């Protein structure tokens, strides 16, 4: 039997909320040293701030609510199960009130989050 487990288990809704440019995020696996990604449950707020990442790709899966994503100045409407891959360098922000699952690859690093002036 292996000395370490070959899996990690997290209950997203039980994690503490952290303020982020889009609202409040509950982040899983970001604190694991060798994790290749992190998974975030995000409650989007109306006042999301435009930002970008130089290294990280994000995959947004809309879970509930409706709104839009501003992606490099293009407004994309979103509804439940809309899935969007946001590549490094894409300036983005959420507009509206909705909830998403965000898969960040590589895992979220606060030093890789940049806002436009």
Topology:
Layout lengths: L17 E3 L2 E6 L9 E7 L6 E2 L4 E15 L2 E5 L4 E4 L5 E14 L8 E2 L2
Antiparallel strand pairs: 1-2, 2-3, 3-8, 4-9, 5-6, 5-7, 5-8
* CATH class value: Mainly Beta
Count of separate DSSP helical elements: 0
The value of Rg in angstroms is 14 Å
Low-confidence stretches: none
- Give the mean pLDDT: 94
Can you tell me the CATH topology? Jelly Rolls
Strand content: over 45%
Gross morphology is: globular
Distance between the termini: 53 Å
The total strand number stands at 9
Could you characterize what this model shows?
By secondary structure, the chain is mainly β. It contains no helices and nine strands. The chain is 0% helix and 50% strand. Strands 1, 2, 3, 5, 6, 7 and 8 form a seven-stranded antiparallel beta sheet that branches. A two-stranded antiparallel sheet has the order 4-9. The model has no long low-confidence stretch (mean pLDDT 94).
Provide a brief overview of the structure.
This protein has 117 residues and is mainly β. It has strands spanning 18-20, 23-28, 38-44, 51-52, 57-71, 74-78, 83-86, 92-105, 114-115.
Entry keywords:
two-stranded antiparallel sheet, globular, mainly beta, Jelly Rolls, seven-stranded antiparallel sheet, 117 residues
């Amino acid at each position: 039997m292996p000395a370490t487990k070959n899996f990690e288990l997290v209950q997203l809704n039980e994690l503490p909320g952290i303020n982020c440019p889009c609202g409040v995020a509950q982040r899983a696996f970001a604190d694991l040293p060798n994790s290749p990604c992190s998974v975030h449950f995000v409650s989007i707020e109306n006042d999301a701030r435009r930002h970008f990442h130089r290294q990280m790709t994000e995959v947004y899966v809309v879970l509930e609510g409706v709104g839009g994503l501003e992606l490099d100045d293009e407004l994309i409407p979103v509804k439940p199960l809309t899935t969007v891959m946001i590549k490094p360098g894409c300036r983005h922000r959420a507009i509206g009130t909705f909830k998403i699952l965000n898969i960040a690859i590589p895992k979220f690093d606060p030093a890789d989050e940049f806002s436009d002036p």
